[in-house]
Design goal:
This protein has two domains: 6-239 and 277-311 and 405-426, Rossmann fold (3-Layer(aba) Sandwich), CATH 3.40.50.720; 240-276 and 312-404 and 427-503, no CATH class. It is built from 20 helices and 13 strands. It has helices spanning 6-10, 23-35, 54-62, 68-74, 97-106, 123-141, 177-186, 189-193, 195-199, 205-220, 252-260, 280-295, 318-331, 349-373, 380-392, 408-411, 413-416, 422-425, 434-449, 455-494; strands at residues 14-18, 41-46, 81-85, 109-112, 149-153, 225-231, 233-235, 266-268, 274-275, 277-279, 302-308, 316-317, 344-346.
């Protein structure tokens, strides 16, 4: 099987995908169907949401523009997908007995991408979804009769609490995952009380619980082959199947949007700090190649770790990226903009709080006061409070530290491809410039995430914000000059020292 092509490897295989309602999961299923059309079946695990049937939730997903290209090529391929009701935070994924037996007897490959990705989640919720959830999927995988490989989607920031992450390998967590799961199942209350102590130097419960989940997968790799992937900050798709596809934002990406919409104007961070990025379609290609790479080796067990990031190939200083988002908004304004976009990034904490008060807090109260006069609910003060909580907590380290992740295993993926597979799976990070990535990502957010109206409406709204912005600056400048004038005038009139004595 060593010389088998990627579509041929997945031919006739049955796949289980978790996290299909999430950003990566949707793109993964679409890519598998379109580029590996002879796959036998794809089970997609979907949690029942209120009274909405899982079939309806899946149909809503396939109605998205993401699937348009697949439908043009062959819409019948969607029939290969079978939604199954379940949840990862329950033993055996809460599958019905009939479905469970069917999955056990047919599934060859698992892609586990389900996760609680919000940086602000409490520890109990993150543990239940990221650590216990991964344990449940991994334990269930032991019962599969035909399992050939398990591809787990972690994060490049799972070990960001450590000083030196020089290799693509498992770095053991300070806490034992078995103990924390036991506490979670018996009495989770102490976990909330000791949240900050337990997560230690991790910036968020997300990175902490994903690190524990890596330990879980390391444990289960004694039973079957595991490919542990670590994507960095995931941007929109760059061109496959469409440019700019994005339908959810979390953490750092949400901060970028906040800057573009004028909600965030002052950031406490080091302007030269760089975050690591990967486009969503390149990340998904890496997952599929990784499954093929591991599966065709026909290993009985063991774990391989692969960072999924551009590394040194594409470096984006954080301050530069924020500035690009601002410029993008000027060219493609949004009707959802709260203020004319501008951003100042400062590393000095005192200067940050002074600027934050002047440029963030006072304008927020002004806008909310005007909204209340118009009979509309206030929004900016609450958004400002949420921003402070995020900036002082989970996002702080991302804008102050310089992260560098080894990605040798990712860099060799293109070399592993056979020539016929390069058309569908080549990860060409040099095809676009850094500005292209920012432009495609930002435009995709406005088009697919914000669902913006016609450009004429957006420009009119933006022009109003521009006038308000510069009017506000003018008013504050005049007030400042008036205060300065009164101060100087007061000193001159009340000065008891002859001017000649000063020289």
């Amino acid at each position: 099987m060593a010389d088998i092509r990627i579509p041929d490897y997945y031919k006739g295989k049955t796949i289980l995908v978790t996290g299909v309602t999430g950003f990566i999961g949707k793109i993964l299923v679409e890519k598998l169907l379109r580029s590996c059309p002879e796959v036998e079946k794809i089970y997609v695990l979907i949690r029942k949401k209120k009274s909405i049937p899982i079939e309806k939730r899946w149909n809503e997903i396939t109605d998205l523009p993401l699937f348009n290209r697949l439908k043009i090529i062959d819409s019948s391929l969607l029939k290969k997908v079978e939604p199954i009701e379940g949840t990862i935070d329950v033993k055996d994924l809460a599958l019905s007995e009939t479905v469970k037996n069917e999955v056990i007897n047919t599934v060859d490959i698992i892609f586990h991408s389900a996760a609680a990705v919000q940086f602000s989640e409490d520890l109990i919720f993150s543990l239940r979804n990221n650590t216990l959830g991964t344990y449940n999927v991994a334990e269930f995988a032991r019962s599969l009769m035909k399992l050939k490989c398990f591809v787990y989607v972690s994060t490049a920031y799972s070990n960001c609490d450590k000083q030196n992450v020089a290799e693509e390998k498992i770095y053991k967590s300070a806490y034992d995952w078995k103990t924390l799961i036991e506490i979670l199942n018996v009495d989770p209350y102490p976990l909330s009380i000791l949240r900050d102590k337990i997560k230690g130097s991790h910036p968020s419960t997300y990175t902490f619980t994903k690190a524990l989940a890596e330990d879980v997968m390391d444990h289960f790799s004694q039973y079957y082959p595991v490919m542990l992937t670590r994507p960095s900050v995931v941007l929109s798709t760059v061109d496959d199947p469409i440019p700019g596809w994005v339908d959810s934002l979390n953490g750092v990406s949400a901060m970028f949007l906040s800057v573009a919409l004028g909600v965030v104007r002052v950031i406490n961070g080091v302007p030269t700090s760089c975050l690591d990025y990967i486009s969503a379609d390149h990340a998904v290609k890496a997952l599929i190649i990784a499954g093929w790479k591991l599966g065709k080796q026909e290993k009985r067990n063991g774990i391989e770790v692969m960072s999924v990031n551009y590394g040194k190939d594409i470096k984006m200083p954080t301050s530069w990226f924020f500035e690009q988002q601002k410029q993008l908004t000027e060219n493609f304004p949004s009707v959802k903009s709260a203020w004319y976009p501008f951003v100042i990034m400062v590393s000095n904490p005192l200067l940050f709080w002074i600027l934050f008060l002047l440029l963030q807090v006072i304008p927020a109260y002004m806008v909310d006061f005007c909204l209340m006069l118009l009979g509309r609910p206030p929004i900016l003060v609450n958004l400002t409070i949420r921003y402070v909580q995020a900036a002082r907590g989970p996002l702080k380290s991302f804008f102050h530290k310089q992260y560098a992740f080894p990605n040798n295993n990712f860099n060799i993926l293109n070399d592993l491809l056979y020539e016929p597979d390069k058309k569908e799976f080549l990860i060409n990070s040099n095809k676009y410039s850094i500005k292209d990535y920012v432009y495609i990502n930002g435009n995709g957010i406005f088009k697919y995430y914000l669902k913006e109206p016609e450009m004429s409406v957006r420009k009119a709204h933006f022009e109003r914000l521009r006038k308000i912005h510069y009017t506000t600056i003018t008013i504050f400048s005049l007030i400042g000059l008036l205060v300065l004038y009164r101060t100087i005038n007061y000193l001159i009139q009340n000065c008891t020292i002859p001017l000649s004595d000063l020289f």
